[in-house]
Amino acid sequence: MRTSIATVCLSGSLEEKMYACARAGFDGIEIFEQDLLVSQMSPEEVRALAARLGLSLDLFQPFRDFEGVDEDTLKENLRRAEAKFQLMQRLGMDLILLCSNVATATINDDELFAAQIRQLADLAAKYEVRIAYEALAWGKYVNTYQHSWKIAQAVDRPNVGICIDSFHILSRGDDPAQIAQIPGEKIFFVQLADAPVLSMDVLSWSRHYRVFPGQGGFKLDEFLGCLARSGYAGIISLEIFNDVFRQSNVQRTAVDGLRSLIWLQSQTAALLEAEGISSHLELHALPGRQQAAGFDFTEIRTEDPEPVARLLVQLGFEFCGQHRRKPVQLFRSNDARIVLNSQRSSGIEAEVCGFGVRMPQAGEAAERAQALLAPEVPRLHLDSEADLPGFRAPDDTEIFFSADKSGWDLEFGGEPLAAAEREPGAVTGIDHINLAQPWQSFDESVLFYTSVLNLHALPGTEVPSPRGLVRSQVLATDDAGVRLALNIVPAGLATLLDRQHEYPEHIAVGTDDIIALARRALAAGMEFLPIPANYYEDLAARFDLDPALLTALQELNLLYDRDGRGEFLHFYTQRVGNMFFEVVERRTGYDGYGAPNAPIRLAAQFERSRWNSH
Amino acid sequence: MRTSIATVCLSGSLEEKMYACARAGFDGIEIFEQDLLVSQMSPEEVRALAARLGLSLDLFQPFRDFEGVDEDTLKENLRRAEAKFQLMQRLGMDLILLCSNVATATINDDELFAAQIRQLADLAAKYEVRIAYEALAWGKYVNTYQHSWKIAQAVDRPNVGICIDSFHILSRGDDPAQIAQIPGEKIFFVQLADAPVLSMDVLSWSRHYRVFPGQGGFKLDEFLGCLARSGYAGIISLEIFNDVFRQSNVQRTAVDGLRSLIWLQSQTAALLEAEGISSHLELHALPGRQQAAGFDFTEIRTEDPEPVARLLVQLGFEFCGQHRRKPVQLFRSNDARIVLNSQRSSGIEAEVCGFGVRMPQAGEAAERAQALLAPEVPRLHLDSEADLPGFRAPDDTEIFFSADKSGWDLEFGGEPLAAAEREPGAVTGIDHINLAQPWQSFDESVLFYTSVLNLHALPGTEVPSPRGLVRSQVLATDDAGVRLALNIVPAGLATLLDRQHEYPEHIAVGTDDIIALARRALAAGMEFLPIPANYYEDLAARFDLDPALLTALQELNLLYDRDGRGEFLHFYTQRVGNMFFEVVERRTGYDGYGAPNAPIRLAAQFERSRWNSH
C-alpha cells in the first residue's frame, strides 16, 4: 500500500516535516499550502528536496470556495486557480484537492457546480493537473461523498475525480458502504483520519481532535475494506488536524502515523481475507497476532536497590540472586518476578523502567514489533544467556518478549527457582502496571500498546487530583492476563521532578488474602500510604459493610470497592523515588481497578509529597 | 452581596483551598464532599478552621441519585443520607444540595419524587438540615428549574427549597425569567457559572469548561437580575468545574473568582437601577465605568537600552531624555511614547513590561481597580513627580492610569515636549500591544482587562505556528483607542526561554505612510523580519494588486490584508530579547490585525530563532 501524510499533521518547518516523513518511511506527502506559504524554501527547492529524500509530492491542498458562485466570483476564482496550477508545475505536482464550497457559494444548483468545475478542469488540463473533489462534512451545499461523486460524474472530464476522507463521512454517521460502488479509478485520493467519539460541532472536532487510525473510535478497517471493494489502487494518506501533534516531536509523530497505517492495513487485510475479497491496495499483513500469556517480570531501575528490596521483602518476596554479570537482582513471590536493575541508574532513586511479557511465539512477536516500527532496545546477551527481544514504548518503558521456557532466571542463581508453595497471603503475581504518560504521547502510546502487544483499550476515566484531572486509560489482553493503566498527569505549575513525585508510577501485585498479607507486612515494619478517616466514614455510608471488616480496613489503611461481580481490596506502599507498590485482592471476579479510590490515593500522595518537602 | 465558592473550583488540599478563599475575601464556601473525603482533616478540624478564618460553611454537596427509586433503594438512600446529616452536624452545616437523580431513577412520577423527598426532609429535620433541590441539566427525569420548583412545592416542607445554578439553566437555552416568579425565600441557594459558547454534550461542557462570570458567553447580569426580582436575599456562590483552574495557583484562582462576583454585581446593579428595580441582594456598585482615551505610553524593561533604542531611532522616534532620578529613558514620535526602563533589569534583554492608559478620571479608575482586587504596583514618586497609580495584570504586565495632563514627561527633560510636526511616514501613535499569556491565566486575564480597563473581548482566533496553535484574543475599547491582543502560546516541548524567544510580545505602532517609513528605516539600517517569496506569490493570487504595490511590499518585507472597509499594510522588526515592534498602516478604516499574516510571522520568527541558536 502506498502511504502518504499531509504536512499539516506535523510540527516544525516544511523542511523538518519532509525529513521526518522520509525517515519514518512514508512514500509521499501532501503539501498543505499554508506550510509552503510560510516556508523560505522556493517551490523548486521543495521539489528537489523531495526528489532527494525519495518522497513523492502526492496532493496539493486545499483549494477552497470555488463552485456555486456568481460569474464575477467565478472569474476571480479561475484566476486564483491558475496561479496555483502554475505553482504546482514548479513543484512538479499534478493533483489538487478541491474542497466543496463552504463560504462563498450562493447558488444551490448541481448543474452549475458541475459546469463551473468543468471550466476549472479545462483550465487545469492545460497544466496537466487533475482535480480531486472532496465533500467537506460542513460544505454549504455539498457535504456527502455521494453528492460529490454525482457532481464529479456530471463534470465528465478525465481529470476530475473525487477525494474520499474518512472523517467527513464517519463524523456525520454516513455509511461508507456505497464507496464500493464507485469505480476505483475515479477515486483520485484517499485521506484517513480517526477521531475519538465526541459529541461536539463537527468543524471543531475535525480541526482539533482528529487522531491517527487506531487511536480513535472509527472503524477504519471496515472503511478501508469499502475502498478495496471499489477497486481503488492508489495512495492512502493521513490528514490529521490535531492540537497535540502540532506541538509534538515531528519525527515521533511521523513514525506514529506510519505505524497507524501499517497496523490498519494488516487489520484490513485480515478482514478482507475472512470475506474472501482480493484488493488492489496490496495490503501488507503483519506477523501473526498473538495473545500475551501474562507478565513475565517487571523491572525497576534504581541506583540503590535497598529501599525497594526492603519493600519487596516486607511484601513477602524472596531474594533469588544477583545476575551473573550485571548489577541486577531478582526478587520473586510465586509468579511475580521483580528485577532491580542498577545499570545506568546514576541519580535514579527508583522508577518502573520496563516489563517482560510471555508470548507463545516470542520471535514472531518481535518481528511484529519491528514491522510496527517499534524502536529496539539493544541488550547484550552472551551465548549462554537468554535472548529476550526488547522494544521501547513511546513512554520510554522497555518491553521484552519471552517464550514460556526462556530460562532467563537461570542467570540469577544457577538453578531454576522452584515455584514456592503458595501460602495464604502471599503475592501470587503481577496484577497490573500503572505507567505515567507525557501528554504529548498519550495517543501514540495507546496505539503502540494496542498494536505491538495486542492489548485492547477499555473506556477511559478521569480522576481528580489536588493538581488537576488525571486521565486514565486501561489496556488489557482479552483474558486480562496483561493489564496496563496509562495515566496522563496534568501539566500544572510544578516542575517535572515535582510531578514525578506527585504522580509516581506503580506495580500492582495480586494476592488471595490481602488482610493476612497486610498484617505480615505491618509486622515487618512496612509503612502504608495513610488513608484519611473521612474515607472510612463514607465507605460505611455507601456500603453496608461488616463492622469487623470496616475496622480491619481502617486499621490497615486498606481501600475497598465493589462491582456487580465482586469485591476489591487494595493498599498502597509509600513511594520510593518515582514508584510505589499496590497490593490487590480481587474477590469473585471483580474486574475494575478501584477507580473511586484513586482520588484518595492521589490526594494522600500529594499531601505526603508536600510533607516530605518541608 | 454575600459571596461563596465551591471548593471544587480550586486546586490543592481542602486546607489550602480554605486559606485561599479566606484571603481572597469570600464570605463562605461550599464543601464539595470529595474534597473532605480525601482530606486528613477531621470534620471538627474543618469546622474550627473555618471559624478561625471567618468563613461560613454554606452548602454541603452533592447528594446524588436519591428520588424516583424503588422501595429497597429508597431505604438504602435514606441510610446513606442519614450518615451525611450526621457528618454535617459535626461540620456545623445546615444546608445540603440534592441533585436530581441521574443514574438510579426508574420511576418517572412527580408525586413519587415529592413523597420520597418528603421522607428525606423529615429525616433531615431531625438534624436541623435544610435541602436545596437542584435540577441537573442532564437529570434523568427532572432537568429544568421549573420542574424542580414544582416538586419542591409538592414536597411542602419548610426545610425543602431549590438550588438555582446558572449553568444548568443557560446551557439548555432555558429562559431564566420565570425565576422572578419563585418566592425568594424558597430559593435556598444560588450557584453561578459562566461558560464559553461551545457546541458539545452538556455534561462534558459542564464538567470541564465552566468559567467564572464574565469569562464566558452567558448573560449572568440578566440572570442575577431575575434572582433579584424573586426577592432572593441569600448567598451567591461560584461552582466552576474547570480543568485549568484545577491545575492553577489556588490563591490566584480564588481572587479571580471573587473579582468575577464583584464585577458581576456591579453590572447587575447598573442594570436594575436602569429599570428602577430594588433588590435584597445588596449589590455593590463599582466606581464609575469610564472609557480609556488611549495609550499614554508603553514601557520596555531592558538591561541595555541600546538595541531597542536603535530600533526606535530607525523607526523615526526621538530621544526625549533621561529620567531625573531613575535609569529610565523616554522616546517619542507624536503620540507614541516608549519608555525604556533599566530598573530591576538584570539579565533581561528586552521585554514589554507595562503600559499607561489615559483615563478622564485616573483616581476613580484606580479606585475601581482596587475594588476589583487588582494588585497594586508600588512605585515611589517624590512630591515633585507625577503619581500614576499602577496595577499588575495576571500576566504580570504593569498598567498605569494617567489623567490627560499628568505631566510625567516633564521628569524626562524639564520641558514638556512639543508635539512634533506630523511628517508623512512618521509613527503617529500606539496601535495595539500584543501580550503573551500563560495558559493557566488566560481566562483570568480576559476578565481582568475587561473589568479593570473596560475593554470588550472580540471573537477569538487560532493561529497555526510551527510549534502548535496560538490562541489569540483581542480586547479593545469601544472606539478602539486602546487595543490589546492576548496570545496563549502552546506549551510544546520547548523550555520557557525558547518559548519566549519563539513567541515574543510586541508593540504595534501606527503610521499614515508605511512605505515611506519602511524606506527610511531601511536606509537607517533596520533589519526587517524576512517574509518568504511564496507569500507574495499567494498574495498576487488572492488579491488583484497593483504590480507596483506588490513589488514594493516584497522589497520591503511588508505584509498586506484587506477587509470590507479598507486595507492593512504592516511589517515586523527583528526580535530584541523577548519583544519586537510592528508598524501598521490602516487605510480607510480597516479594523483587523492582519490575522491571515500571523502564521507567516510566527514561522519566520521560529525559523529565525532556530537560525540564531545554531
Automatic annotation (TrEMBL), chains A, B:
Positions of Mg(2+) binding: H432, H506, E582
Pathway: Aromatic compound metabolism; 3,4-dihydroxybenzoate biosynthesis
Source taxon at top rank: Bacteria
Cleaved signal peptide residues: none
Gene Ontology MF annotations: 3-dehydroshikimate dehydratase activity; dioxygenase activity; metal ion binding
Cofactor(s) listed: a divalent metal cation
EC number(s) given by UniProt: 4.2.1.118
Domain VOC: 429-574
Gene Ontology BP term (one): 3,4-dihydroxybenzoate biosynthetic process
Binding site for a divalent metal cation: E134, D165, Q191, E239
Catalysed reactions listed for this entry: 3-dehydroshikimate = 3,4-dihydroxybenzoate + H2O
EC main group: lyase
Keywords: Carbohydrate metabolism, Dioxygenase, Lyase, Metal-binding, Oxidoreductase, Pyruvate
UniProt family annotation: Belongs to the bacterial two-domain DSD family.
PANTHER family: HYDROXYPYRUVATE ISOMERASE, XYLOSE ISOMERASE-LIKE TIM BARREL DOMAIN-CONTAINING PROTEIN
Role, per record: Catalyzes the conversion of 3-dehydroshikimate to protocatechuate (3,4-dihydroxybenzoate), a common intermediate of quinate and shikimate degradation pathways.
Full protein name: 3-dehydroshikimate dehydratase
Organism: Glutamicibacter uratoxydans
